[in-house]
Amino acid sequence: MNKRDCDKKGLILAATLGDCVHVAGTLNFLRLAEAQGYETHFMGTQRTASEVVEAALETDPEIIAVSFRLSPEVAADLFEELDEALRAAGLGDKRVIFGGTPPVCRLAESSGLFEAVFDGTMDEALEFLSEDHSQGDEAIPPQSLVERIQWRRPYPILRHHFGLPSLSATREGITAIADAKVVDVISIGPDQNAQVAFFRPEEQNPRQDGAGGVPVRSEDDFSALYEASRSGNYPLLRCYSGTRDVLKMAPLLADSIHNAWCAVPLFWYNILDGRGPRSLKTSIEEAKLLMAWHAEQNIPVEVNEAHHWSLRDAPDVIAVVAAYLAARAAKASGVTDYVAQYMFNTPPGITYAMDLAKMLAKKTLIHELEDSAFRIWTQVRTGLLSFPSDLSMAKGQLAASSVLQMALNPDIVHVVSYSEADHAATADDVISSVKIVRQVIKETRFGLPDMGLDTNVQRRTEELLGEARI
Fold first, then answer.
1. CA distances (Å), 304 to each of 135, 265, 325, 381, 403, in order?
2. Would you put residue 168 in left (φ > 0), alpha (ψ -120 to 50) or beta?
3. pLDDT greater than 90 at residue 9
4. Of 5, 21, 92, 208, whose Cβ has the fewest other Cβ atoms within 10 Å?
5. What mean pLDDT value characterizes the chain?
6. How far from chain centre, in Å, is Cα 409?
7. Whether 126 contacts 445, CB under 8 Å
8. Are 190 and 214 in contact, with CB atoms under 8 Å apart?
């Protein structure tokens, strides 16, 4: 190791202290650091304070990262030894960070030695690694979809749907979710009155207020929800386009909540599925105009089309074709950034192998459209109808489905609350569900076996591609 001039963010020198041989957390942290532009060097395990300081003198790292996952009593002596060794070597102002178990982290925080302390939560580590420290600790994460995705890499951003029957309760819940710093995008779920008759108050049924979501009735209501999100990790907000007057709703959402991306189906939300009064032809024409408007505003677009067919038990090949047609319609409308959504576990009962094959067929066709003017962002989610009503079993379903979804290497994970089959998600349900998925992502992001290589998956994928192309 020699001193070097680094044209990136600098070098992170890492080691475990004392008798600690636990390296998984340290290595995951270093992978994150490399993705954020740092050079890294791992000295290995069971290093003494003097060995760490000697290496720091030799390499002049920007950051020294040490870890210890054993007893706090031993850690106290190690921290004191490291502090003394750094000062003796003239490195008292060197940036030092720590990772370990929660009890040891509490001791590390009180020691005064460390700039930052991590107990295994990837968001806090990523925030530390990606922020511009010259701006202090209050730097706000990126506030556009594409920038947020790039900021979070190598992990996907996380999105969750949220809307309670009360506007005030929804505002409080959004603030609680933001302050928990676990969700990157909150999707506002309006009630049925808002989706069908937001601009036609005379047609709203007061008895249906709060049915299926939050009763937003004005642009000020939307703005209030946005303001509620301005804390914690400052999540992006987005909202579906509604099932009527979608061209009037688009600028309202852009102005009030800075809609992170547009979501609209191509064939649905009309008399076909009973979610709105529009004819099929009208909804298709308006969907294309809506895509074009967002393209002109440089707002990403998602055409949440394919899973609507699977929710109604359509053959897999129809869902594959619908996914391709949706992406092609978006490209033809001038969309630059396209969010391709893949809802797994739909219809209920589909096996994991056949489900993955269907998704791989969709992704193959969709990505044939990609070029320098049409970027595709992969979004995955668990199927709405796949959750059992038993909440403990539903947590298992959420985790299991999320493992399968990681096979698509997603940019966005749309987390669906495990409470879906029992009740509308509260803020606590959202936070708990997202934490389950975060753990799945943490465990699978590096080194997940390639399930797409399974011979049954490959055979079914090719079968679907052949039928879809016809």
1. 38, 5, 11, 12, 22
2. alpha
3. no
4. 5
5. 92
6. 12
7. no
8. yes
Q: Categorize the per-residue pLDDT at 37 as very low, low, confident or very high, splitting at 50, 70 and 90.
A: confident
Tokens of residue 439, six digits: 């753990």
Task: Name which of 462, 438, 372, 367 is nearest 408 in CA terms.
Answer: 367
Task: Express each pLDDT in 128-187 by its tens digit.
Answer: 887 654 444 457 899 999 999 998 888 999 999 999 999 999 999 999 999 999 999 999
Q: Which of 324, 246, 337 is nearest to 283 (CA)?
A: 246
Give the pLDDT of residue 7.
44
What separation, in Å, do the N-terminal and C-terminal C-alpha atoms of the chain show? Answer: 59
